[in-house]
């Protein structure tokens, strides 16, 4: 049986105990835990884990900070298990490499969740999926698009624009949306056309100029 290494960063002792209890039901899982991000990075052992599980609201360095530093290669996989339900926490985690985001109350299907992520998939709680869909459906308007001939962006185009401003590449955006890089690049071209720009710098400047953010 192949051993699967799982790293866990969680400062809540009671929840960590419950989490490890669930994971230890699978004898193929090898666990290592830390109570803070600082303790995780202080380890001399290699930071290559089959899966890193972490909370967002950690003492000191946050889980988002960990994700930003940890995901330097596409092969690394992470799962956020948190009680934080803010849009900022959820979208920041997904934008910074997390393959999944579930609530701390949802450990019943944890083994299936882990296997899905290890197989290259993504898992988010139904309520989080609803938040993602709502973010796409919010009406988006420019301050005065008619004054400069700029068309209104679609919800998906605005989401892509926000990700580009955050520094995401077309490959990362395609992975997040479950689509092809070619499709994302075509959508970026459409955004260029609607904003009447030719470069990424001009695109970001125009977006801020007309109050898209």
UniProtKB/TrEMBL annotation:
PANTHER family: TWO-COMPONENT RESPONSE REGULATOR. Keywords: DNA-binding, Phosphoprotein. Residues 5-119 form the Response regulatory domain. Gene3D superfamilies: 3.40.50.2300. Residues 146-211 form the HTH luxR-type domain. The modification 4-aspartylphosphate is found at residue 55. This is DNA-binding response regulator.
